[in-house]
Specification:
EC number: 1.11.1.6
GO molecular function: catalase activity
CATH class of one domain: Mainly Beta
Distance between the termini: 84 Å
Number of helices: 12
CATH topology of one domain: Catalase HpII,  Chain A, domain 1
Order of helices and strands: HEEEEHHHEEEHHEEHEHHHHH
Structural class: alpha+beta
InterPro entries: Catalase, Catalase_3, Catalase_AS, Catalase_clade1/3, Catalase_core, Catalase_haem_BS, Catalase_immune_responsive, Catalase_sf
Shape: globular
Oligomer: single chain
Keywords: Heme, Hydrogen peroxide, Iron, Metal-binding, Oxidoreductase, Peroxidase
Pfam family, one: Catalase
Largest sheet: 10 strands, antiparallel
Strand content: 15-25%
CATH superfamily of one domain: Catalase core domain
Length: 485
């Protein structure tokens, strides 16, 4: 016999007789430990928050679909891209990077752009940012970089000295720093920004032929950004501005959309291109590798419950489907492990069983047990492989395709160390207004740096990208710096 839906129950389904008063020994007596309903409420309340994400803690999400608009089956055998007009459901999470769960939406920060495609071959996660590059290019530097973006362990305050000390000692960050400090460092809304896979990936077709690929989501709402002063004002008046904007737009039927394009590079070009194509601090020139349209992403449904869908959503760049594979990008290689490992810690070993993460396709494997296993845990089926009882087996046609690896096992840097050309090109693409605001933003950010040595070291990087760039930052900071030869 089921309980009336209007009757309050405990988590084990028993009706609750009194939800207003706890059991006590007399009217003023101490509370009784036998009040199991009270104990359950308090214990569950203490555990209502899973640990927030170390990075990308503050975010907003939405459901939608992806529709193929161009036949690219000559490049990839991924089934969700197999025919024009095909639609795949998806979930997206936008986020800031450095702030905590309660931080303001309109801070100067990259934005996460994570898309989960629920394909018939399993989930495919494309976990990128609203920038085509990143600050570092080797995952071994990631914990140190993020430490500089978080709070000082003594003062518990943001520390611009740590931020600029790290950047000045990591010249590969210059390209992303220039983007971050430009107008695009503060998008007007999540709807008015591009998204990028950032890394290089590999596409493989039915014949086993591969190409290198980069993803570009182009907003169909147009690019809009916030002035730094207006962003600061909004942060004080409505710190959830971007979250509110996305929810309200979808609620009133103004569905945001993006056109997905890719750049395609033949495998052999990786050995001769003027920049290392696996270096995530660099872009590929669109003159060399033009954008090719793939399809269109539309967001048309808000979450029903923020925690269940947005907070518990887990994304990993290692969630591939046949036809899409990893590249030797050092930063990507580290993320293939780190993201899923973070979710196993934060949400639990069975996070992929949650409705928001569970694939639409059937899941067949020999993983068993673990905390919060809430399906039938494989029932009485065979629980090891290989076996003689007809359990699921590997499909050799879905093996990852090989790529050549040469050299000695060693801690090796990228061969190319030109950190200045692309940052300088970006500066020279800006008009005078954009350059002025860029310099103002950098000067404002560096004002709190405690050591002049750090400022001077960073200015040398600006000089190397473009002499005017370095000179204007130096003047804004009141420093006299000679360009390093």
């Amino acid at each position: 016999m089921s309980t009336n839906k209007n009757h309050l129950t405990t988590s084990w389904g028993a009706p609750v007789g009194d939800n207003q008063n706890s059991m006590t020994a007399g009217g003023r007596g101490p509370t009784l430990i036998q009040d199991v309903h009270l104990l359950e409420k308090l214990a569950h309340f203490n555990r209502e928050r899973v640990p927030e994400r170390v990075v990308h803690a503050k975010g907003a999400g939405a459901h939608g679909y992806f529709e193929v608009t161009n036949d690219l089956t000559r490049f990839t055998k991924a089934k969700f891209l197999s025919e024009v007009g095909k639609r795949t459901p998806l979930f997206i999470r936008f986020s800031t990077v450095a702030g905590e769960l309660g931080s303001a939406d309109t801070v100067r920060d990259p934005r996460g752009f994570a898309v989960k495609f629920y394909t018939e071959e399993g989930n495919y996660d494309l976990v990128g940012n609203n920038t085509p590059v990143f600050f570092i290019r080797d995952a071994i530097k990631f914990p140190d970089f993020i430490h500089t973006q978080k709070r000082d362990p003594q003062t518990h305050l943001k520390n611009p000295t740590a931020v600029w000390d790290f950047w000045s000692l990591s010249p590969e960050s210059l390209h992303q720093v220039t983007i971050l400090m430009s107008d695009r460092g503060i998008p007007a809304t999540y709807r008015h920004m591009h998204g990028f896979g950032s890394h290089t990936f590999k596409w493989v077709n039915e014949q086993g032929e591969g190409v290198w690929v980069k993803y570009h989501f182009k907003t169909e709402q147009g690019i809009k950004n916030l002035d730094a002063q207006l962003a600061a004002q909004i942060a004080g008046e409505n710190p959830d501005y971007h979250t509110e904007d996305l929810f309200n737009a979808i609620a009133k039927g103004d569905y945001p959309s993006w056109k997905l394009c890719v750049q395609i590079m033949p495998l052999e070009d990786a050995n001769t291109y003027r920049f290392d194509p696996f270096d995530v601090t660099k872009v590929w020139s669109q003159k060399d590798y033009p954008l090719i349209e793939v399809g269109r992403m539309v967001l048309n449904k808000n979450p029903e419950n923020y925690f269940a869908e947005v907070e518990q959503a887990t994304f990993s760049p290692g969630s591939f489907v046949p036809g899409i594979e990893a590249s030797p990008d050092k930063m990507l290689q580290g993320r293939l492990f780190a993201y899923s490992d973070a979710h196993r810690y934060r949400v639990g070993s069975n996070h992929n069983l949650l409705p928001i993460n569970r694939p639409k396709s059937e899941v067949n494997n020999y993983q068993r047990d673990g905390a919060m296993r809430f399906d039938n845990n494989g029932g009485g089926s065979v629980y090891y492989e290989p076996n003689s009882f007809g359990g699921p087996k590997e499909t050799p046609q879905n093996k990852t395709t090989p790529y050549e690896v040469v050299g000695y096992a060693d801690s090796v840097a990228y061969d190319h160390d030109d950190h200045y050309t692309q940052a300088g090109d970006l500066y020279r693409l800006m008009d005078e207004g954009e350059r002025s605001r860029l310099v103002q933003n950098i000067a404002a950010s560096m004002k709190g740096v405690q050591k002049e040595e750090i400022k001077l070291r960073q200015i040398q990087h600006f000089y190397k990208a473009d002499p005017e760039y370095g000179q204007r930052v130096a003047e804004a900071l009141g420093l006299a710096v000679q360009q390093e030869k």
